[in-house]
Amino acid sequence: MLLQIIMTGILLGGIYAVISIGLSLIFGVMRIINFAHGEFLMISMYGAFWAFQYFHLHPYVSAVVIVPIAFIIGALIYKALIHPAMKRSASVVVLATVGLSLVLQNMALFLWKSDFRTVPVPIAGMNVQIGSIYIPLSSLVAFVVASLITVVLWMFLNKTQIGRSIRATTQDKQAAQLMGINVQKTFLLTFGLGSALVAVGGSLITPIFTIFPALGVNMVMICFVIVVLGGLGSIPGAWLGGIIIGLIDAIAGYYFSAEIKQILFFVIFIAIMIVKPAGLLGVKGSEEVGLK
Amino acid sequence: MILNDFMLSMIILIALWAGLAGSWNLLSGYIGQLSLGHVAFMGIGAYSSGILFTTYNVSPLIGMAVGILVSVLVAIIVGFATFRLKGPFFSMATIGIAEVLRNVAHLMKDMTKGSIGLTIPYKPGLVNLVFESKWGYIGICVVYLIIVMAVTYFINNNRFGYHLRSIAEDETAAECLGVNALKMKLKAFAISAALTSMGGTIWVQYVMFVDPESIFSFAYSIEMVILAMLGGAGTVIGPLLGSLLITPLTYILQEALRDYGSGLYLVIYGLILILVVLYLPKGLVGLWKDLRFKLKRGSLDGKPIEKLGNS
Hints:
heterodimer; A: mainly alpha; ABC transporter involved in vitamin B12 uptake, BtuC; 11 helices; 75% helix; B: mainly alpha; two-stranded antiparallel ribbon; 14 helices; 2 strands; globular
């Protein structure tokens, strides 16, 4: 039984990781937190839902369209909102993205009502059985993709020229600019990429979770805990943080009520702030750098 | 002018929300540490007095004091954990603390009655902070607003206020000049939490009902932010100005958009918030100052002095 819980926890962790990586990437490069991150996830899930409803597209298939759209929307939001806000101050970015989250969430509530929606694709009910342990196939896919994204993104940031310019921008905006890196373009790319990653997460979890306008609020709190635990800005950290929180979620969910689980998450969040503010895999001092 | 019932309740709400936004302003407006979960303290105030009054028949005035104590304690713990870090950590933590308290309120069913909510018994009297006429509530809310504004005014023109603004300007520089930034921030957070908690107690005595979902709602936290930002964050009069505009607007919007869904007014809230922070970062007070400056000097060259803290 315990083995089953641990397995469930690890797979859930993969799901959490895949929806947190985008947030961590954006913070890592741009030093901003997108408080509308949860709403981006919610909207991409609605996208998958409507694609299924009208065109009978499996969420894994519709992702081929939705993910690039998410990239473009992310880039547009960067141009229209994030860039002007970043020119002012860090506080303005926080409040502007909070405003965006209010707009998106309540527009969704207005357009699509608060009904709970599901995408009943066959994969949702399929299991792989190893010994006495059942592994839900959709969770397994999410876990594998999350791990792949972690590796690919890490390679992209560390081995390619664009990745290098992104990391250079992270380390020193001005110096990077002097070296001929187009900082604005890098930020635009990063925000678009972060948004696209959220949409990947949305497509993967659409068969697993119910869809409703306020789901982003629940999810974003978990994402915050994960990225802070793993180390804000660290991609492998988001993966590791996701797995740990997934495990805690599954174990605490088995033994305690949902309320206690929520409280536990917050206690972890506060504890990391006090004990190890850079997170498990974050670079020391990363929580302070470049916020001016 | 005939003061009908509607206008009286509008005055109550304007004063109460101006007080709550003013409490938020003391922390977030002056230092720029953005709290996005100030309902946490409103809820502590509401539940402290609500539980003591309904179950033990203790005067809400004592409940208010208990609420203030608990709020200060929570503020110091959360502040201590997050203020040492720069960036959006504090904002993330404040959303979290409101969520946690909502869950705690659900968990402590025997005291809070969970999602059924607490109903305040109707026992009019000053000691009970329950009044037959709306004028009683107007009195209490205006007194509350005056307290908040007096505290803000005092801090604004005091050494402590200069310290707070120096931290908002440049924390490192302030520390080099001998300002103990952590201590100052904690002090401001404690005062802000205490005043918000007071408002929470008054709120529950006026509405006569409290349940976890309504009192800990994100919309209330944001309402405080918007009122203060629109009026002018980091000013004494700003939150009142904001409340004079937004509180009636909220009511009108909620009424007008009722048929289209309960959340639609929040879309407009979000848009107002975005527009204010992008185009009116100093709020109406700042706009007025700029205009006056322009009229005096004939031009508006100087750099914008807006700087709502960047730590």
